[in-house]
Design brief:
Layout: H1 4-7, E1 19-27, E2 34-38, E3 49-50, E4 53-55, H2 62-74, E5 83-93, E6 96-105, E7 119-123, H3 125-128, H4 140-147
Parallel strand pairs: 1-6
Antiparallel strand pairs: 1-4, 2-3, 2-7, 5-6
């Protein structure tokens, strides 16, 4: 088995930092508005508006993690097949690399409630850029505009 440092002579200079995989959903209503949640007080980036979702646990598939997170955060049920890959973002997150996987979702059961957020808001993609959002979420807006 070949090691990276043996194949790439400069690999010993590559920075190796832990990667945190995060999943999020752009829940799209019939009228084209997207659900955002406001981060609760006392949390990192409190008050910012974000796509609902959360961390992928070790050994967990991203879609399963998102189904779980949407149940925990919003009290809604989503089938894994209702999640369509949309975009991703890469960002620095407190000394770790964060990879954010965004999925589109147009079908769910239940009415979203802010179980783990300060508030919920349905907005058009054109309105999102005026809202304070985390660094990883904001670059996804133009991509999302093209998909909806």
């Amino acid at each position: 088995m070949r090691r990276v440092n043996g194949v790439l002579p400069l690999a010993k200079n590559l920075e190796k930092i832990p990667t945190l995989t995060v999943v999020a959903a752009a829940l799209v209503a019939a009228d084209g508005r997207v659900l955002l949640q406001q981060r609760a007080p006392g949390r990192a980036m409190a008050g910012l508006w974000e796509f609902p979702g959360g961390k992928v646990e070790a050994g967990e598939r991203p879609e399963a993690a998102l189904v779980r997170e949407l149940e925990e955060e919003l009290g809604i049920a989503v089938e894994p097949g209702a999640l369509g890959p949309a975009a991703f973002a890469s960002a620095d997150n407190e000394g770790r690399h964060m990879l954010l996987l965004l999925y589109l979702c147009r079908e769910w059961r239940g009415e979203p409630r802010p179980l783990d957020a300060a508030a919920l808001k349905w907005v058009r993609t054109q309105e999102m850029s005026a809202l304070p959002m985390p660094p990883a979420d904001a670059p996804l807006i133009p991509l999302l505009e093209r998909l909806i």
